[in-house]
Each structure stands twice: as C-alpha cells, then as structure tokens.
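Design job #97: recover the sequence.
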C-alpha cells in the first residue's frame, strides 16, 4: 500500500516486479517479488504531461528526464494482465496529484483484465482525506478492509459490526 509517491512505488512493484533491471545475480533473484495485491491512495501514476505530478518526475529523473525514463515509469503504460489486483482511491478535489492519474491507470487495468476496485470521491485533500469533514471520503479505509476481506487477504468482517 502506498499514497501519493508511495502509490507510485507500490504500483511499480505491481507492474515491474520481474524487471531485469532489478536483478542482482544473488540467490534472492529466484524469489518472486510480485505482490499479492496493491492499494494505491491518490497515487502518482503518469510521468507524462499534462497530468504528471512535476515534483515526482523531477525527484525521479532530475530536471531533464529522457523519453525512455518517462515511458518506463508512466505506470499506465506498464500494466500487464498478470499483475496483482489493485485497489484505488482518489479525489476529484486533489490539487497535488490530478485524479486523471487514477483514471488513466484504471482504464489500463480494465483493458488488461486486471481485477480492480476504484473509489473516486468528490471531496478530500491530498494526504488528508481521512478528516471527517470530507464525509464518505474519510471512510475509504473501511472500503479497503472490506475489499481485502473479499479477496481473502483478511478474515471476513463480523456481520454484527458496521
């Protein structure tokens, strides 16, 4: 699970877990690094304009990224059918990472047939969507818990609990 730039990191693990660039020649290379699932909360996804989070692109590549770097870490372009299922949360009100990051990723995931659950809320600021002032947005952790139980990663919720 990751949020914002951490969402990009989590999604990178989900799309590039077996990339030859990550191999070191050690015995650990034989162990799969593929996550069982990924939860990405208002994630940075694309490195392309117009929806790139420019601070993330600059932090990853410096002031003059190459087209190859941009392509490699624009994760909507790295989606593959054998990647783990994904849970996405975004808000339309996010002023830092445009919601289009999650939307382009969702389309790529859907097109590849990757099981995905996405929640896009109208309210909620970047990095502070748990504040009760944002209403339903603040309840996304409960939706994540329900989803994780549904996919068998957590015990099923007690029927007597909300």
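Job complete. Output follows.
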């Amino acid at each position: 699970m990751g949020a914002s730039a951490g969402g990009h990191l989590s999604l990178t693990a989900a799309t590039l877990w077996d990339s030859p660039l990550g191999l070191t020649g050690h015995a650990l290379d034989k162990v799969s690094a593929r996550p069982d699932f990924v939860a990405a909360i208002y994630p940075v996804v694309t490195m392309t304009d117009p929806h790139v989070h420019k601070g993330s692109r600059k932090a990853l590549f410096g002031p003059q990224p190459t087209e190859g770097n941009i392509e490699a870490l624009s994760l909507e372009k790295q989606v593959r059918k054998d990647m783990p299922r994904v849970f996405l949360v975004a808000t339309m009100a996010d002023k830092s990472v445009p919601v289009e990051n999650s939307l382009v990723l969702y389309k790529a995931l859907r097109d590849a047939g990757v099981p995905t659950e996405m929640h896009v809320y109208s309210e909620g600021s970047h990095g502070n969507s748990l504040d009760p002032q944002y209403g339903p947005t603040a309840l996304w952790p409960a939706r994540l818990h329900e989803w994780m139980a549904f996919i068998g990663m957590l015990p099923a919720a007690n029927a007597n609990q909300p």
